[in-house]
Amino acid sequence: MTTIARRTRDLTVSRAPFVHATVVRAQDPTSARPGDDAVILPDGTIEGFVGGMCAENSVRAAALDALRDGNALLLRVLPDGAPAFPDTPGARVVVNPCHSGGALEIFLRPVLPVPVLGLVGDTPISAAVATLAAFLDFEVATSGDHSGATVVVVAGLGKGEQDAIRAALDAGVGHIALVASRTRGAAVLDEMELSDAERARVRTPAGLEIGARSPQEIALSIMAEVVRALRVDGLASSPAQPAALPQQAVDPVCGMTVLVGPDTPHVRIDGTDHWFCCPGCLDRHVAA
């Protein structure tokens, strides 16, 4: 197993988000070769090799965008003056201003931790929710420890509901589904004297209104509401979300977007900061 393969395995096990970047095509002259790969972390750190400094700037910016939207991307890094590629869905073209030239195609695959569903209760409904959630690639946790959970489903049907809701709220869970009738659910929450913000995080009756009757149908309505919260309402799939995108700047010489960091070539002229993709662009700007 390669160093990068071990690293991707360890990051996946630890539920840390990252992007796996693989060079799929390289045109001389370029220092990267097909099969070279790297992982890019949420802070912009690149571990591995997918090209020189200019390529790294483009890979870093594209990888962090991929972490934010969760979509895989084919990045084409072309030498300055190369013929334009036609627009391709799922592809991004950037110009490499470095003198080395060469072209690269790099596949960027974001790896995000699967959402965790905390489940409370030992009932036919909770069993059906567990089965469906696993089918939908959720990690199902029944330990009662809700830290790290995306959503908690309370399906005890009257047993330990308030303690479970309180624990989920204290753990910062954004979506708590209480399986109860509208009347009983409201009564349970009224007794807890929740703040408006806390109460807004508890859905009761749980699930979308689809006329569900059987435990399996009720589980379907609950998971449909959970998926909608994730895909439509913007519920965070994991507390370990990608960090905010670092500060970006546009290289005034070549027009490349660069991420500002301690090693980014930089100069201040007349009180204005300028950042560059490489020392060559900085030198040309200063000499102009």
TrEMBL record:
Top-rank taxon: Bacteria
Stored Gene3D superfamilies: NAD(P)-binding Rossmann-like Domain (3.40.50.720)
Pfam families cross-referenced by the UniProt entry: XdhC_C, XdhC_CoxI
InterPro entries according to UniProt: MoCofactor_Util/Proc, XdhC_CoxI, XdhC_Rossmann_dom
All copies of domain XdhC Rossmann, residue ranges: 119-226
Domain XdhC- CoxI, residue spans: 15-76
Name of protein: Xanthine dehydrogenase accessory factor
Organism of provenance: Micromonospora tulbaghiae
